[in-house]
Design a protein that fits this description.
The structure is a homodimer of 311-residue chains.
Chain A (H helix, E strand, L loop, with lengths): L10 H7 L14 E5 L2 E11 L11 H17 L4 E11 L6 H17 L2 E9 L5 E11 L14 E5 L4 H10 L6 H7 L5 H8 L4 E6 L4 H12 L2 E5 L9 H6 L6 E5 L4 H12 L3 E8 L4 E5 L2 E6 L2 E4 L1
Parallel strand pairs in A: 3-4, 8-11
Antiparallel strand pairs in A: 1-2, 2-5, 3-5, 6-9, 6-10, 7-9, 8-10, 11-12, 12-13
């Protein structure tokens, strides 16, 4: 799920840059940010479309309800903010008027309740035959806590929370009919790193942060681009029990990818793991030069969608 | 276009009321409101669905682009706030990838530029065959300026900005192939009352306010319900050049419906019209008792969708 992308519109998008910003930061992070005194609000939005992001036959209404809010509060957590509220728009065909929408709202409520997030507005409308869902999440944090993709510094440790690849392995399990594997259950009941994101927001040694939405192999490039730096990632360090392709290219893990000042890393890792019970794993380092280099125990390797090529 | 309606979900919606509100006001106005120090932010969202809200064959992409942002900034204006930013989500089938989306963005930009509103985020995604558009508008105002549907008082003058019924008359003209009437042009190039809304927000004598989205015959009921009052409207006073049914039940006029302290009304009307060049017309009065009473030059009449029944 790409954020805030109007790049395909080309010249039209540029026209918007000339408009007054009213204190909002330019597009480029998981959320847009606006200062409100000592605090900042962050806002993000995500659209889920039937037959593109979910199949009604394959996902229960509750799962779609959980997922639709989760992707958004994960983006809020990735900014170092605490999610406080959502807006929900639904367009529903006749065939999803009763049972489906009640299941959807149960799933949506389940996550809202667990995360203490209010539903403060929205819109409901008819559609011809497909369901479309749009969620906006709003987060709040002390201004100094907000973490941006653009804040990585050369020498920073690149690290990730939790384990990678479970969700995409689970999706493959489900596609092959193995509905009850650990990975399949994780895929169906993903959690966003909200406690962890808010905790990391309070740490000065945390520089850049984002959530893992398309797999770290493509997500790290957003940090590199926004921070104008390079990166070196050691595949031997990736925290995963599965094929590296799931860990690096699989989506929907909702883990956090961040860069930390190298001399602060060890104590931050210890305090983080004590405070949250979630592991934090160093997987590489921010470099100069702008390139992404993959290594395996210090030897350069090449990564593509078929896997790794060793030299 | 109904706002914030999850009433059809019944018991599920009530479950959300138990969640922490984090300073957001409960659902029930054109926008949700959150205090940020001396100021407040207001947020609203609206979803437009192809073949429900627009036909690709009947509306140009530019028109859809203008309308999708206009309905939202009209809601911001109705709170007495100044629109500052929007978030835009688009799901687009193959058939709308190039020319359509460029036209849409030109229309969206035209209104953004005229109103000085930033585009601060969004999402773009594929869809199978229909276009869905979701827009969030964010407004800002001194806290004291925010106008709510719940603030009408018994004895208030009910009034409207501009003229009613033009947009729905224009829609009928277009349906009958009369594309170039004044009303048809107004329908295609509607304007939101942003200057007027922000001006009215500064006035203590303005009590309740909302925008006219479904026609005043149904919109006034939201003010009555939220303010727990009745209303009496004199059809002889309705500012319209068209059939009263357009003026009372037609949508998309984007005018403002408001209630004003009766002893302040005459001077407020004069100052408003001087400041904005827009007319403000008294059409009735807030009453006790909770009923909506229609009169024509002081005689009670009965209004339904077929028109008026005189006693």
């Amino acid at each position: 799920m790409k954020k805030s992308e109007f790049s395909f519109i080309g010249d039209i998008a540029k026209m918007f840059n000339a408009l007054p910003h009213h204190g909002f930061e330019p597009i480029g992070d998981d959320c847009t940010v606006i200062d409100i005194g000592d605090e900042a609000l962050v806002l993000t939005t995500d659209m889920l479309v039937e037959d593109v992001h979910f199949l009604r036959a394959a996902s229960s209404a509750e799962e779609v309800g959980r997922k639709s809010i989760l992707v958004n509060i994960s983006d809020v957590a990735a900014m170092g903010a605490k999610p406080v509220a959502t807006l929900l728009s639904l367009s529903l065909p006749e065939s999803a008027q009763e049972e489906w929408v009640e299941g959807f709202m149960r799933g949506y409520h389940e996550v809202s309740e667990r995360e203490g997030v209010a539903l403060v507005g929205g819109d409901t409308t008819a559609s011809r035959d497909k369901i479309t869902i749009n969620v906006v999440a709003i987060g709040r944090a002390p201004k100094a806590n907000i973490k941006r993709r653009s804040a990585a510094r050369i020498g920073d440790i690149i690290c990730v929370t939790g384990e990678l690849g479970i969700s995409s392995k689970g999706l493959v399990d489900i596609m092959f009919g193995d509905l009850d594997t650990t990975a399949a259950r994780c895929h169906r009941n993903a959690q966003a790193r909200t406690t962890e994101g808010a905790w990391l927001g309070t740490q000065e040694d945390v520089h850049a942060m984002m959530d893992v939405s398309d797999g770290i192999a493509s997500d790290i490039k957003h940090i590199m681009e926004q921070s104008k730096v390079g990166a070196e990632i050691d595949t031997a360090l990736i925290p995963t029990d599965y094929d590296l392709r799931f860990a690096l290219s699989g989506g929907e893990d909702y883990e956090l990818l961040l860069t930390v000042a190298s001399d602060g890393f060890e104590s931050l890792k210890r305090e983080f793991e004590n405070a949250t019970g979630c592991q934090l794993t160093a997987i590489g380092r921010i470099t100069d030069g702008g390139e992404l280099r993959w290594v395996e125990n210090d030897a350069t390797i090449e990564f593509n969608f078929e896997g790794f090529k060793h030299f």
